[in-house]
Amino acid sequence: MSRIDIALDFDGTCVTHAYPKIGKDIGAFPVLKKLQDRGHRIFLWTMRSGKELRQAIDFVTENGINLAGANVNPEQKSWTSSPKLHCQLVIDDIALGIPLLMDHATNHPYVDWKRVEVLLKQKGLI
Question: CATH number, domain at 89?
């Protein structure tokens, strides 16, 4: 499969929900690294802004992921003024059909990366 652009949410997707703090690691980064190693570009796509966005970017980067952008795909400015991030895949805890686990401490669901990894393999992305 050719390279795709992936929009990646942060809270509930890369980590458990703890905004404005950084939540607990939920196993996203080994899977994201496999996507990155296959040449796919990862864009952080989050409601975070300002200092909280910087913290999320730093956390993702410190966990070995080279982001192609955060809340914007810089390349799309040449062909659209739309603020919607252009991508071929979205990984987000609120996406319909995304496999979830429940964090009983916060009563918020979060992405089940073991099941997501299986789905990505089935699609030939990793």
Answer: 3.40.50.1000
As given in the structure block, the two tokens for residue 69 are 């952008």
pLDDT digit string, tens, across residues 78-116: 898 888 889 999 999 999 999 999 999 999 999 999 999
Domain count, the chain: 1
List C-alpha distances in Å: 21 to 38, 48, 55, 56, 86.
31, 11, 9, 9, 27
**Would you call 25 helix, strand, or coil by DSSP?**
strand
- DSSP state letters, 60-117: HHHTT--EEEES--GGGGGT----SPP-SEEE-TTSTT--EEEETTTTEEEE-HHHHH
Evaluate if residue 1 carries a pLDDT over 80.
no
pTM: 0.93
Question: What pLDDT digit, counting tens, does each position of 68-87 carry?
Answer: 999 988 888 889 888 888 99
Domain that residue 19 falls in? 5-122
